[in-house]
Amino acid sequence: MTVRDATDLVEVSGLTKHFPLRKGLFSRQVGAVRAVDDVSFVIRRGETLGLVGESGCGKSTTGRLIMRLIPPTEGGILFDGVDLSKLEGSALRRMRRQFQMVVQDPFNALNPRMTVAETIGEPLYLAGQDRTARERRVKELLEVVGLASYHAERYPHEFSGGQRQRIGIARALAVKPKFIVCDEPVSALDVSIQAQVVNLLKDLQREYALTYLFVSHDLGVVRHISDRVAVMYLGKIVELADKRRLYSTPKHPYTQALLSAVPVPRPGARRDRVMLTGDVPSARRPPSGCRFHTRCPLADETCRQVEPPLIDVGNNHYAACHRVTKGSERDDA
Ligand code: SF4
Fold first, then answer.
1. Structural domains of the chain sorted by starting position, each given as residue range(s) with its CATH number in brackets
2. Taking CA 301 as the corner, what is the angle to CA 299 and CA 303, rounded to the nearest 5 degrees?
3. What is the pTM of this model?
4. Cα–Cα–Cα angle for 275, 280, 286, rounded to 5 degrees
5. Closest C-alpha among 254, 243, 251, 239 to residue 292
6. What is the Å distance from ligand 1's center to 325 Cα?
7. 217 C-alpha vs ligand 1 centroid, how far in Å?
8. Which tens digits make up the pLDDT trace of 107-160?
């Protein structure tokens, strides 16, 4: 899965982030939150990789690690063949223009004292563009995201949630990035507005050959925008496949449970609901063996003791479960 390929834009290998827990006068480390634990995957040029899972599973932390907003505890991130962990200072700032982020809450992400023109133009200013070039680009970007040029002099509070997300997307596009991490970009929006923003992201991807990591807890939204989908549970990727295979033949019991809760679009059709019991365990002390065993209806003694590796079950469909076997995916899935 992590073999170097010219079509890969982002290559993540063994990515790990443990947040230390400290206590006492001397801030002695008493443990760690294992937010992301030995995660490996690639994102191909021009694709959208959906990253899904329940709250606290480590998906947003993975996005922030790839953006180099926080340092990893271990593991590597290659962006277009360049090892991001080796970059610092101006080299990292230059590289950062190629990857940008769109976040969940556009209102908090936008500075209330800056006009839209200043907000979108800020990355251009930091990149050294003069005022005339910035004004021209801001006008162009407003049009690209479906806003009017007169919006440039307004402030964030004058816009609806969907419009503010469009401003966030315009800002992310300002420096012509190759890659955007979309971190729950529509979860704060009404359902009708969600579709508009997702469709805008899809249009922009086609027009500018963008590559996305789309982080979301909503499998319905992820299905609409993603080419491939990775499912995370307690800091680990438990399943990864192209969208069609993952939604039609999920292998991992956790994915099966998540999908069983997603409404079926066909009238009259329904899925048998798989109810998950118990709470998500703490990432401070993840369960032994398979991390999902405390909630899995199929768990046995092996599951409690031995961690299942992420294996290829066929057709680039990967799953980490003792109940799935190599090559078990049929071609007609
Ligand atoms: Fe369930 Fe065992 Fe598979 Fe884990 S390894 S998902 S506990 S059957």
1. 8-98+177-325 (3.40.50.300)
2. 50
3. 0.91
4. 135
5. 254
6. 12
7. 21
8. 677 888 999 999 999 999 998 999 999 999 999 999 999 999 999 999 999 999
